[in-house]
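Re: Re: ligand-bound prediction request (bumping)

Still looking for help on this. To restate: I need the protein modeled with zinc ion bound, output as structure tokens. Inputs repeated here so nobody has to scroll up.
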Amino acid sequence: MAEFQEVLKQSALHPKPAGLCLQYGTAGFRTNAKQLDHIMFRMGMLATLRSKKTQATIGVMVTASHNPEEDNGVKLVDPMGEMLTPAWEDYATQLANAEQDDLARAVKEVIQKEAIDMSREANVFVGKDTRSSSPALSQAVIDGVSALGGHTPLHGLVSEHKGECAMYLLLNASNRTDDQKHLCVDGANGIGALKVREMEHHLQKGLQISLFNDGSKGKLNHQCGADFVKVQQKPPADIEINPGERCCSFDGDADRIVYYYTDSDGRFHLLDGDKIATLISTFLKELLTQAGLDLNIAVVQTAYANGSSTLYLENTMKVIVKCTKTGVKHLHHEAQKFDIGVYFEANGHGTVLFSQAAVEKIQQLAEDANSDDTKKRAALLLQSTVNVINQTVGDAISDMLLIEAILAVRGMTVQQWDAMYTDLPNRQLKVKVSDRRVIDTTDAERRAVSPAGLQDAIDSLVKKYRQARSFVRPSGTEDVVRVYAEAETQESADALAHEVSLAVY
Ligand code: NG1
Ligand code: ZN
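Reply:
Sorry for the wait, this slipped through. Here it is.
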């Protein structure tokens, strides 16, 4: 067969040191990077065979995780993020150890045993970490994929970030319809738009992005972006969105994200940071139960969190809810106190933190050969979440990938997500005062302690409306006092916000 001529020719460029024998273990192959070139080439071939067999995209990750810099390693990842099955682990070991002149035979044997149709297409994602040996080794994987006629989207290199690789796989493996795969992204003419442009191609199978405000003409955050959408409660000015279409907006530096859609009556629905925290924490809690892991999980919010979200999380989802002062550093600090801390400001800043102990327990379970399928799947999904989420700071793109993967895995539409609870109508106003520092607050900014009488005035205004809540606080970023009110109806929320702002003067 012509293709085996190619295999022999190519593999001679990645020769195996005679006599070297390695075993495919839980972490794949892992050893000194100098001994791995032939292994990488051969694992590229094996991933191609696996992709032809499963007709799905297979991941190859080049990394030795926490091991020393001089080491490296490789493991194959099935479409749902699972490890290889034992039979394929054996093939991996056989291919790795075949002497140079026996390689073509070893490859043919796998093809025969698995009855692989070699005319099928194969797609392999290759991820790598930042080790100095990783670029050359991942190129060897790509050579192996090409030797058997497979494809490596975006020259095979997905990203430096192994978690993104896992999330791409989840997205690409999901059975969403074309409609469900479609997502409008408003890049706010900022940095996030550039990054989305770079990655949209290799997401294509699971997520089809239409990117707006990509920086080619509009101004940064002007009539677009997460803040505009959240505060104006409407879509960006220049986007035509169809009813029911799932959309999201980043802010200019891509550390905030909000989702939204319009319904068939033209009504705008915003899924803000509170809804995002609810989606993520519900997903994680469900996985913890399935995995049988005893880890605590908390959602950290600020006073701006919609009252409905807090009630839903506490009463229906039974997760711990904490409230801190406005500002990511306060939320981050509080979230660190839990095994899993999900934190989001209503405006879309946020992320998920996992304690070291939580990461270790999840990893142990994911690698435990004796755990059952449900537990294993849950552990792998938790592990993918740990990997994709940016624990240092929330970033809009990791948040978007996680949200899209959750919707895909749960087979959930944006409308179903929105229906988890109904936001209380709310209103935010800014009030200019001569000196905003005369307002001092307590209880995570929910109550004013000075000037005297202000809190009493707010309390009696709030009593006039049903399901009402209101607070005032000096902004930390603008020379204004912010007023927030929520109530049973929009009219009530607007009236209450207006009355409270008069009390501030
Ligand atoms: P101030 O101006 O202190 O309300 C605003 C946002 C915060 C946070 C910071 C920093 C609101 C109500 N406030 O703070 O959530 O994003 O900017 O960026 O959205
Ligand atoms: Zn920002």
